[in-house]
Amino acid sequence: MTLGEVVASRLRSPDFDRWMAGAARVGFCSNPVRLVGSSATMDGGTGEVLREFATSRQPDGLTYVRCGNRRARRCESCSHEYKGDTWHMIMAGAAGGMKGVPEGVAEHPMVFLTLTAPSFGAVHSPAGSSRRGKCAHGIDRGCRCEHAEGDAVLGDPMCAECYDYAGHIVWQFFAPELWRRFTILLRRHLARELGLTQRVAAEHVRLQFAKVAEFQRRGAVHFHAIIRLDGVSETEEFPPPPADAGERELIAAIRSAARATAFEAPLVPGEGTRRILRWGVQLDVRSIVRREGLGGALSDRAVAAYIAKYATKATEDLDGRADGRAHVRRLKGTAELIAEDDADGAYAFLGKWSHMLGFRGHFSSKSRRYSVTLGSLREARRRWRLDRIIEEAREEGHEIEEVLVVGSWSFAGMGWLNEGDRALAMDAARAAREWRDARRVQFNTKEGEKDD
Ligand SMILES: [Zn+2]
Ligand SMILES: [Zn+2]
Ligand SMILES: [Zn+2]
Question: What is the residue range of 421's domain?
Answer without folding.
Answer: 3-71+375-451
